[in-house]
């Protein structure tokens, strides 16, 4: 049997085990995503910015790979061995009341030092967080299914059990996907272990997809661009954006009143508010100086903007200083994700109309970046997304 075909069949089978039949589309609860950063550069199976790649020799500081098969899922031999990578997700709830509580554990190893584990609220159809294949989440789309129609989930007050942590909206159709600037996200996060000094723990990670000319994605991996915005709360992660490394900064920072501060303005640009920015690899007019994003880690070009706790984000409910919400400081957050994501810089071709920023994936979790034998452990509950409907702010709860 072809391994790729088997993998697709397996995903369809497992998805159907959690599927709820509904109109116009079924939905399949939360997505639990585990990803590895391993890449066999000699195999050339990963596209380069959406184009077919050529083999190239591994680089000392490049993608980890222990040899042939490094991109395969590891065999489970003994979970108690010191140098074994694994992930675990469990969820529980008191029947009839309270919230689902998701508990996560992620461990890296020498063979798998770069691992990611996320709890994602994805749409039921469309390109989830920029991937070129159809998503199957619990945020249910209405409309034409293009990623720009209505968003539906089970109503929280309908008397129906919406399933494990699938949030329910207090609205009636048409329901819309989270769109900048009009949505907030609320959840309770308790971090027990942080995953080490290279753990990029994302308090909030949102993903979308639009072309550089502002048009919505259509599945063409050479022109579609994944867009990510992520807040890292590990206090050990510092800013790569600084006055001597402007290429790691977005071209400008936007204040709440709409004023733009150029990254060359050393007196006023908040360098420490940004970890790193990189431009999509197919950008034709990136502002000098610039760095292109990793061309292989996504099936199409990607653009990444990572921010850090800083007073400039307090306006949106985000942490304002390092250590807030970290180990030993569990908190309930209510983040104005929509308004912040509208203010953040994302590349577009000069003269193109501004893209409508729809976010088909809302998630949190950690990315342990090339650091072996590290452990992260955290729990999430009361994960809600609050979106407007017909001009009214209507809330959801899980």
TrEMBL record:
Pfam families: DUF7705
Boundaries of every DUF7705 domain copy: 2-77, 82-140, 175-387
InterPro entries: DUF7705
PANTHER family the UniProt entry points to: EXPANSIN-LIKE EG45 DOMAIN-CONTAINING PROTEIN, NEPROSIN DOMAIN-CONTAINING PROTEIN
Protein name: DUF7705 domain-containing protein
Species annotation: Sesamum radiatum (Black benniseed)
